[in-house]
Amino acid sequence: MSVDDGQADVKRDLERARSRLRLLSDASVALASILDADEALGRLARLIVPHLGDACVIDLVEHGRVRRVTTVHRDTARRLPRPPHNPPPGPGDSPAPLARVLRGAGPLATTDFGPPAEPGSLQAAQLRLYRGLDAGTVLIIPLKVHREVLGALSLVRPASSGPFEQEVVDIAGDLAYRAGLALENARLYALQQNTAEQLQRSLLPELTDFSRLQLTARYVPARKGVEVGGDWYDAFALPDGSTVLAIGDVVGHDLTAAVRMGQLRNMLRALAFDSGDSPAGVMRRLDGTMQGLSSTELVTAVITRVYTPPSGPWLAHWTNAGHPPPLLTSPTEGSRLLEDGLAPVLGVDTSIARGDALTPLPPDSTLLLYTDGLIERPGENISRGLTRLRQHGASLAHLPLEEFCDGLLERLTDGHQDDVAILALRVPAQTQVLS
């Protein structure tokens, strides 16, 4: 071998080493930056192909079934076999390569893909997959965390490419280890997010004691990747027969915000029921109590007191602490925002003057309280969201209340990044005393 040939070999080895290091670096970034497990594993598979194999397949074990998450081939025009319908891993003595790895074997490189199997089984699905990928050699590596196999990463080569080199086996094992950690982190995050959401839902009231009023509420958690926030609503009757409707948002997006939301709602109930004060008076009391007895920092809220007199129109009496204005919409009178009674958010200064506003509620109208997730979009002026709300509120006002709320959420929550809570009251077509 000449000196030039030796130098060329060294350069090739260095370039191959740099390429593998870039792959490990890029894979680490892809796995660490995404909390959606399927998306992260899909990115990993696209990074691996064609550096380590002609195809990459990732399967996960979920609830005793095997789910194929992704299949990537270097030939993007190739028609890939459809994923199986989550078959079970198979019997404990199954000789199928994937089943063996999922039981704890591996890494496993093989050219023997196992015997024919019953239709609908995991082995049958794997044989169909390997035929579709023209597989000659398959390297299957477990995705393992704390001795638990969460799934498997498979690399596929045609027969013409020969066996997998030890260097490729080592790199694939490193990637599988990182993928297993990322998968475990994503599952822990999803568990935490679900716990926070369930806690928040448990702290919100069920509107089952309002047969005399037509009330509906909805809570929609933020889309994936965003933590649960402190959105809340409440409705309760006062001794004089009026009804308090309230909605608000505690600053924060975590379990702490959900807990503080529950504390705030309980304080509001006690203050409103005991004092008999106006909405502005209750808001002032709530601000003082919150700052004296709670670690909650900033809160927006609307407190509305609804009166149903023996004759004449129903009345809404409200105050607003830095919250989006309520919407009043009617099939005959259109929509308008109740923008009076506005003062700064709670938690700033207890000496701030707070005022009330009063408006009649026309027959067959709908009073809607909502949190900012319904109207806000990143990079958009909030006035556009309020205009959108008025327009859709007017177009849906003729629908039954449940359909009205569902229609608003369907039209306005596309792409939302924050929690959404809404509380809606429908005034009867002929207002009268409700017993």
From TrEMBL:
The lineage of its organism: Bacteria, Bacillati, Actinomycetota, Actinomycetes, Kitasatosporales. Gene3D superfamilies: 3.30.450.40, PPM-type phosphatase domain. This is SpoIIE family protein phosphatase. Signal peptide: none annotated. Pfam families: GAF, SpoIIE. Residues 73-100 are annotated as: Disordered. Keywords: Hydrolase. It comes from Streptantibioticus parmotrematis. SMART domains: GAF, PP2C_SIG. Residues 213-427 form the PPM-type phosphatase domain. Residues 83-94 have a biased composition (Pro residues). InterPro entries: Bact_Sigma-Reg, GAF, GAF-like_dom_sf, PPM-type-like_dom_sf, PPM-type_phosphatase-like_dom. It comes from the Bacteria. The keyword Hydrolase applies. Residues 36-193 form the GAF domain.
